[in-house]
Prior knowledge:
7-stranded mixed beta sheet; single chain; 15% strand; Aspartate Aminotransferase, domain 1; 12 strands; globular
Amino acid sequence: MGVHGGSAELDPGDPVVPPIVQSSTFRWALPSEGELLYSRYGNNPIQQLVGRKVAELEGMEAGVVLSSGMAATAMTLLALTRGGDHVVASEQLYGGTLKLLAHELPRRGIETTFVDPTIGRSWRGALRKRTRLLFLETPTNPTLRVLDPRPVAGLAHDRGIVLVMDTTFASPVNLRAGELGADVVIHSATKYLGGHSDLIAGVVVGSRALVDEVTAMMRLYGAAVDPFACWLLDRGLRTLDVRVRRQNENALALAGWLRGRRGIQRVIHPGLEDHPDHELAADLLDGFGGMVSFVLEGGGRAADAFLKRLHLAVPAPSLGGVETLVSQPRHTSHTGMKPVERRRLGIPDGFVRVSVGVEDVGDLIADFDAALEAR
């Protein structure tokens, strides 16, 4: 998965690894010479290759690579809505997406109604005549709820509404949302698709018509990805399958070990049988994911101390890399929320999010054990 996708058959003497075409522009004089190539347009050869590759991984028709996950989200929302339109979105979203929907789009005359995605009827009840787009994230950040998009997709398609899904936490290895009815799939490619914490990028895949709309908006706002970052992303995609499967295994092992530890109130991982969506996750996902969250007794102070005592795992935002990263959403993705708002979403002080890497799981457990015991 991801090794050969999007590439043409090689001729003798062709490079096995696609080259970086580190050029902003390309010779072009007349329309008769074909498409105007310009890296800001997102049609540099390496940009096009990676867009095709992710689309193939997702089983979608087309893809476009952008400068970040938030660029992918913003360009999609701006491309598919107009002033006066209405969006219905899950309230369990990445903090940046929440801010975009709640504070930025209203300045452009686009209103969003947020719903509890675990209550199926909430989506239908929020629809209006001007509803143009439904937005769903699964698994959710950072509470790791696994939501069934199939009823939402059915509702959207009955009404002629576009369903957009952010499946960054799953990656195409664990979930292909197009198979479940999503019209557009968004990834922060900074995370699992890149996989090495060394690039910033986003990807949007879907039908050719929808991706063309997003591409047009990307060109207008200047959100194309740099060719070198795109080349790094292609490199990451080549090992996506083996990385994610190892992270799936490590995360489940770490979650099982954490569940029995003193001082931990709750451990959250879809692979645990006490997770509220465990059966659904087993049905929908091809792997339970590399993310683990848990809540420490002692609240924020205990979580601060825990992060400071880690040696192998790295306290840092972001996720999906080969190294284990640990963060607190109250300090990072959801820092703009009041504590009462975070608690309502299941993110109390003391909530720790772990992006499990590919290290030896025994070494990881020993690191977490030492950090938990040194209280």
